[in-house]
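Hi everyone,

Forwarding the result from last night's run.
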Amino acid sequence: MKKLLSMFLVVLLVSTMFVGCSDNNEEPKEEYVTVQDMYGNSIEIVKNPQKVACVSRTTYDFLIAFGLGDKIDGVYENVLANTWVQELNPTQEDYFAYEYNPSAETYISRDVDLIFSPEERITVELRKLGLPAMTVNHYGPEEGYDNQMFFLADLVVQLWGEDTEVVEKVEYWKNDITTTIDDITNTLDDNNIEEGKSIHYVRADKKDKGITYTENTRPYLEYIYRLLKVRTIGQDLESNKISAEELLVINPDYIVIGGIYQNGAVEASKVEPMNKLTAVKEGNVLTIPVGISQFEHPSSVASVFIKDQANKLYPELFDYDIAKLTKEAYKYYYNIDLTDEQTKNILEGKNPDGQYE
């Protein structure tokens, strides 16, 4: 396989050289821009990319929302399998379905000019082969997500900034996020709310995992909940799995469940030994909406997610109309008029048919 790839790259390079040496009918040279990825690595990317591989699951939503859907070549297959994507975005049928870690040959054969990769280790290998890959995910560097909130939005402007409509949507999104964070943190500060309570995030994007499948380190969610004055227990874990015994010892104040299989996780919390947890006994098991993207991932509806969680964590302080905000966001970013039933299903973590997966 490596030999085949090397031969292919040589042929590709030689072909490019011959095209470059032609004196007649030369096409304008592509303009490149140097950008930094989430981990501080510099990379040259062609300006105004026309074929983007959104293998990172946190990029497809943003490109659609910012008006760049026609620049997408393909999307991570699990994202395309989301029934809300199939229901609300008919153009998804035109996208190539990428595996989590496709071969270099796949990218070369599809002639992509930008790869949004889900992990740094994958990105490094792709770059060694000269492919235009950069890491974009909801984990970020080890120091946390604090300085990454606007990373992809700013990158979009760097690459497609000549499109005024794209820039307008990006600026609208950034202002919405800033206003939301300011409003909520100011309210919490005015009411002398200090970080003290703990929360356990359950990752229910895989079936029958119960409530012990989570996220460790300091991802996007850790940053959001820290803004909301609660502490995620995952940042202290060595892996993304926690034993029932360990969870019972930590005994978090809240449990929050996201993903398309969240109802199964909710039911799992009601049986022994999980029903002994304080969060379960006191009714502090929260859920996260699921639409075109999982709301707990960086997305166009990030401000709605933050407000939704503020409502659930501090019902005495916040009363945002989440249904109204969700409809407004989908109309602005996707030009979709959600029905009341669709909105209800999204907020309850159900599929378009009103059923739990």
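Residues 1-24 have pLDDT under 50 and may be disordered.

Cheers,
N.
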